């Protein structure tokens, strides 16, 4: 865990040693810019979560971007009809990696009450979902809880080794021979060791 | 002439055009032949001041002949009366003359009926689907279309697949029980009749 450097009295206390993954994840999880994919009434709760009473800015996610190229997390809030489904998928594909997805509410998670010819039965049929939030619609607190769960998940990711394998191999060729580095989160060690494919 | 008087005399004015006339709770319904629709509509708008077309809807009476019904809800702003026109459309013909040049609001209503029920409208200026996408192969509000939908595929436009019904449709039974006991459940067989 972070240690305080004590080699120079002038900068003592301002230098922290930590793992690269932990630093990257810490920066990512506290600045998740959402893509507000508001498709139905859940979007009203999403707006409430962003407004002053619930204030999603407390978790670093207040910057709703309407350009997918500037987003980190897509919040699918509402009923995904078949007519809209491929547009949602296209917007998802326009978002840069790393990216995450929150399926907000019953409709986005499973089609909800719409067992119908017109409604996609869950956005996870088209794009990978990290967090599902129950509710019809979920209260803003539930969305904030989902966001905190996502932050918890990001804390445990193998950011550097899994996502920048070539750079890792360039910087430290011996890293492939070493046992996998695990990311640390409060309360224990999480995260699976990187596979051979991601390290290659 | 007041509204009720007008409706009473309407049958005489239109004469043979009206096949039947139903009065129910001060609502008047005329059944007319599809070929008389435009004549009756023009007369209704110009001579009888039915200047407001509230809605057009369609009914699928599967198993009966003729199969479809198209229903026009008219209102007169000056006389404050309603009038309902019904016409029967057989499955073989499956087309009605448009009234979108008489009441412009009919444009989108007729597109919706075409989209959902598959009834075409002759001389409509822009008869495209309005809710589903062009190329969707079914008419989803017809009685023989399954509730869960049917699979279809249009690359780069849209796709559909049948929804899992899991014993549904799920309905809520009216009762004074708590919300937990009133949760939607699969419909019991004895209620389906």
Structure overview:
The complex is a heterodimer of chains A (200) and B (193). Chain A is α/β, with parallel strands linked by helices. Chain A folds into 2 domains: 26-155, Rossmann fold (3-Layer(aba) Sandwich), CATH 3.40.50.12280; 158-200, no CATH class. Helix content of chain A is 35%, strand content 13%. In chain A, strand 7 (184-185) and strand 8 (188-189) form a beta hairpin. In chain A, helix 2 crosses helix 5. By secondary structure, chain B is α+β, with helices and mostly antiparallel strands. Chain B has a domain at 3-131: Beta Polymerase, domain 2 (2-Layer Sandwich). Chain B has helices at 3-14, 37-46, 106-117; strands at 18-24, 27-32, 52-60, 68-76, 81-89, 95-97, 120-122, 152-154, 158-160, 170-171, 185-186. The model of chain B has no long low-confidence stretch (mean pLDDT 86). Chain A binds chain B through residues 82-83, 85-86, 111, 113-119, 121, and chain B through 131-133, 138, 140, 145-150, 156-161, 163-165, 168-170, 184.
What is the N-to-C succession of helices and strands of chain A? EEHEHEHEHEHHHEEH
For the biggest sheet of chain A, the summary is: 4 strands, parallel
Low-pLDDT ranges of chain A: 183-200
Total discrete domains of chain A: 2
Number of strands of chain A: 8
CATH fold-level assignment of the largest domain in chain A: Rossmann fold
Pairing-aware structural class of the strands and helices of chain B?
Answer: alpha+beta
CATH architecture descriptor of the domain at 3-131 in chain B: 2-Layer Sandwich
Please state the second-level CATH architecture of the largest domain in chain A: 3-Layer(aba) Sandwich
